[in-house]
Specification:
45% helix, Homeodomain-like_sf, mainly alpha, Phage shock protein operon transcriptional activator, 89 residues, sequence-specific DNA binding, elongated, single chain, Arc Repressor Mutant, subunit A, 4 helices, HTH_Fis
């Protein structure tokens, strides 16, 4: 609920523009960090490699706190642990 300075006068209109907000300064565009692989390729192997790299990156950014690393990837702690075991990290 938005409150303005005085409740004597109702709001005339509310403008919500979801596109007005700029991305954070430290945000990196996906196109800057990854390039598309050349075809033909083994899709499963590519996915496994990308998943492993993301796990390692999240661990580094989370300062090797597995709970924080899981949050960075939008996973539960148990999902994250299962992926670590899967990739033998």
């Amino acid at each position: 609920m938005y409150r303005h300075g005085t409740s004597d006068y109702p709001l005339d209109d509310i403008i919500i523009d979801p596109f007005k907000r700029r991305p954070p300064e430290d945000a990196i565009a996906v196109s800057e960090t990854t390039s598309l692989p050349t075809l033909p390729l083994d899709l499963r192997e590519f996915q496994m490699q990308q998943e492993k790299e993301l796990l390692q990156l999240s661990l580094q950014q989370g300062k090797y706190n597995q709970k924080r690393a899981a949050e960075l990837l939008g996973l539960t702690y148990h999902q994250f642990r299962a992926l670590l075991k899967k990739h033998q990290i």
